[in-house]
Every structure is written in C-alpha cells, then in structure tokens.
Design goal:
The chain is of the alpha/beta class. It is built from six helices and seven strands.
C-alpha cells in the first residue's frame, strides 16, 4: 500500500509523472545534489539538467555525486543565483525544482530569500513547456522560510487560472512546521483543455 512519509517523496512522484527521457529540466537549488542526481537519472543520456547554486561548495558536493554515478555528462552546474536562470537556460524545460531554505549541513545564514525566489520562479514559469511543472519544497520552520512561504503563496494566488494550476500540499497533522509543497503546472499557454 502507498504511504507518504515525506514531502520529498511527493515531489518525486510529481516529477516522475511529467519528466521523460530526453527532457531538459532545471534544479534551481542544487544544495547537496540529491535532486540533481535524481533528475539526471530520469532525463537519461539524451536529456539535460541545469543545476544552480550560489555556494561553490554545494556544486562541488553535487559534482562528486554525479561523477561517482557516471551522470556528470548530462548536467551543467552553474555557480550563480537561480534568479538569473534565463541567462543560462535558453530552451523550454519540462520541470523546475526548488528545494528552498538552507543547505543541510551548510551555513544556516545562507538561505534562499523570497525576493530572488519569486524573481526566479516568474522566469521559470515562462520557460515551462505545455503541461510542465514548477515544484517547490518550502521550509516554514525558520524565519526566512516563513516569509518565503507567505510571499510565494501570495504570488501564486495572483497567477492566472487560465495559464497555471497551483497545488499547495502540507502534512496537516505533523508537528514543528514540516516542509510544504507547491506544484505549479503551465496550462496550455493560456488555453484551457487538452492540447
């Protein structure tokens, strides 16, 4: 029987439903490399992952994992802020993932901020293919995370329902403000119904 243990598992379920071999995808927050590695496995040899992080040590950790699993050739690691993703990614993408907050094991002061996250997301949504997904894991258990969550929900509430579908998931009975999930699907470039 299917049982949800973590928001991260739900994130991967959504990504598995949409990403196929040969797709182009973005990991907007490479962190410790787990999402980048996962995406590289799904897109296959003919696909590509663009992975962003402002911390060079995060990209070094990610690169080490990619080399160890022989997946480095399908990933471009970018040492820059995700709000600049349009400067590096010049193709339409199937999915963009954000794992917000600070890098586990890293400096807690180096955390994503709502202003740059929303700037990045607004660009990412325009890059999505028809029916593509932006998936955001939000961590409201720390000060900046609470602000980021509030501002992201306001931003998503203003998105056109003709152009985007927005899903907000959280574990309502879990203590200590567990992670939450936002899933945004681009909707036929503003046309309702199936293409």
């Amino acid at each position: 029987m299917f049982r949800i243990k973590k928001i991260a598992e739900l994130t991967r379920l959504y990504l598995q439903m949409i990403i196929k071999e040969g797709d182009q995808v973005v990991d907007a927050t490479a962190g410790n490399g787990f999402d980048t590695l996962y995406l590289a496995g799904i897109v296959g040899k003919s696909g590509h992952v663009y992975a962003f992080d402002i911390q060079s040590e995060a990209l070094a950790i990610t690169q080490k994992k990619l080399i160890a699993t022989d997946l480095a050739d399908r990933v471009t690691l970018i040492n820059d802020g995700h709000e600049k993703l349009d400067l590096y990614v010049k193709v339409q993408v199937t999915a963009v993932i954000y794992n917000l907050g600070y890098r586990p094991g890293g400096c807690r002061e180096k955390t994503t901020k709502q202003a740059t996250t929303i700037k990045s997301l607004s660009k990412a949504l325009l890059m999505l293919k028809n029916k593509g997904l932006a998936v955001l894991v939000i961590y409201p258990g720390h000060g900046e995370g609470k602000i980021e969550k509030d501002q992201l929900l306001k931003y998503c509430g203003r998105l056109s329902p003709r152009e985007y579908n927005v899903l907000h998931l959280y574990l309502a009975n879990q203590p200590n403000e567990p992670p939450e999930l936002l899933v945004i699907q681009r909707n036929n470039f503003g046309i309702t119904g199936d293409a």
